[in-house]
Amino acid sequence: MPVRRRVLVLALVLGPALMGAAASDGAVAAVKKSLDAALEVARAGGNRDETLVALRAVARDILDTRAMGRRALGDVFAAQPPEQQVAYLELFDQLMVRAYLQKLLLFRDPHFDYGEPRSAGNAVIVRTTIVTSRDEYHVDYEMRERDGRWSATDVIVEGISLTDNYRSQFSSLLRDRSFQELLDLMRSKTRPLPGGT
Amino acid sequence: MKTLFTITWKDLRLIARDRAAILFLVLVPFVVVTVLAESLAGSDTGSLLLPVVNEDQGPVASVLIQALSEYATVVEVDRAEAEYLVAGKKTAPAAIVVPEHTSKRYLATRPSTLLLLTDPAKGAAVGAVKAYLLLADRKAAEIADPLSQELLVMEERNLTGSRSSIPPAEQNVPGFSIMFVMMGVLFGVAFGLHDERQWGAITRLLTAPIPRVALLGGKLLARFVVGLIQLVLLFVYGHLVFGLSLGRAPVALALVMIAVVFCMTGFSLLVSAFTRTREQVIPLGLTVIMVFCALGGCWWPMYQMPPWLRQAAQLTFTTWAMEGFHDVILRDRAVLDILPGVGVLVVYGAVCLAAGARLHRLDAA
Known about the structure:
The complex is a heterodimer of chains A (about 200) and B (about 375).
Chain A: H1 3-44, H2 48-62, H3 65-73, H4 75-78, H5 82-105, E1 111-114, E2 118-120, E3 123-131, E4 136-146, E5 149-157, E6 160-161, H6 162-174, H7 179-189
Antiparallel strand pairs in A: 1-3, 2-3, 3-4, 4-5, 5-6
Helix pairs in contact in A: 1-2, 2-5, 3-5, 3-6, 5-7
Chain B: H1 2-17, H2 19-39, E1 49-54, H3 59-68, E2 73-76, H4 79-88, E3 94-98, H5 102-107, E4 112-118, H6 123-143, E5 152-158, H7 169-199, H8 201-207, H9 212-242, H10 250-273, H11 278-295, H12 307-312, H13 317-330, H14 335-359
């Protein structure tokens, strides 16, 4: 085989793998950056409200709550008028950030381990483990790149997808309630935490 | 006017002559106020013992324990120890079991059921534990809000009987019954002996060929019978009017009643032995009744008292009397279960009876 052809075959075989590895590295780096930032904020101590505000910024940096919100509502989202969509996405953002932070804040000075990332379609699953002295808790981030920036379109805690969890709750609610009632319920659930939501 | 002052002066001199009566009169309010204040001092100092069985060993249990520690004395124990503290030793009104994998389930947004093992006989304290859980919910919200998503559900399990809640009357009727019967027996015994001495009846009886034991025993037996009838009537009234449960073992209830009134009778003889005059009976009797009722849990739940006072309360027969009634009517305990408590009451009464008889002087006025 001529040298030029060999190089071409090698490029065709290894190219996607190398690109995939680069993509995985980017996704892991984004998660690691976010979790390190969260740890730094938590360790800095200080005013609790300021800590919460800083943590919310970190959470919003990693979580693509708009994508999560659309996925959680499925086809129903597209059927809503724009103003309802905006209202829903704002409320979902609050709910998701809050739920994520609540879980993260449970741990006092956690240690994060990072597993081997894997590809899932056009997403990269970044596996993390929160290690405590008594147990381990698995949290996977489904990362997607958009406009050169990696963000999580789902968080899978102990095998349960947060987005799917909301999706099943919403579809069950919308079986016998209107979309407006769902928004009202979400509003009632997003009572502001100290430090603003 | 001069006559009035003369009579007043004469009476004051008579009162002053009975120094013991004056001492009791001055001391009573101080003693009672101190005991009442101390008894209630523990109500907001986290003196309630709350065993927690941490099967989770995860962050949710840690947050919950941290939050509950603000309101109660939380001890981490195993399941057997928790059940013993609630149902056996009866030092805790309830215990919380945080099941295995609660943290994992919470993190995965799946509900878990916390188990609340209760002794409904300590109804008010169980209510306090439930309130503490609500307060812990708020406190936890400041830490991580693990309870706000309705992911932790509470299941209550009664360890000591068949009912999950006890009406307040079922705790109050036995307490106030003990107090009033104690008043009747104590003042009856003390006044009876003093009056007979003052009227000279004792002199006549002592000259008659009656053994001293029979003389004192007869008087005490009469008071015992009156006290027992009074206690039975109060319980029947409580049963008919307030729906007071009489338990599942009438024999056990009867045994506790007999032991309680026997103990009261012996105790009354001992108290009356410390009084030389009729005037001394009222202040001393009232002090003893109030202190014993306060410490014995007749007026409020024992958990409201500081731990050291709860320990001290074990020396009062009213504590054992209340436990005996609670065992029978609230915890559905059978005869065999209540025998140790009944034994304590009988021994307590017998010791008081012996000491009282030895100290009491059946002499003429």
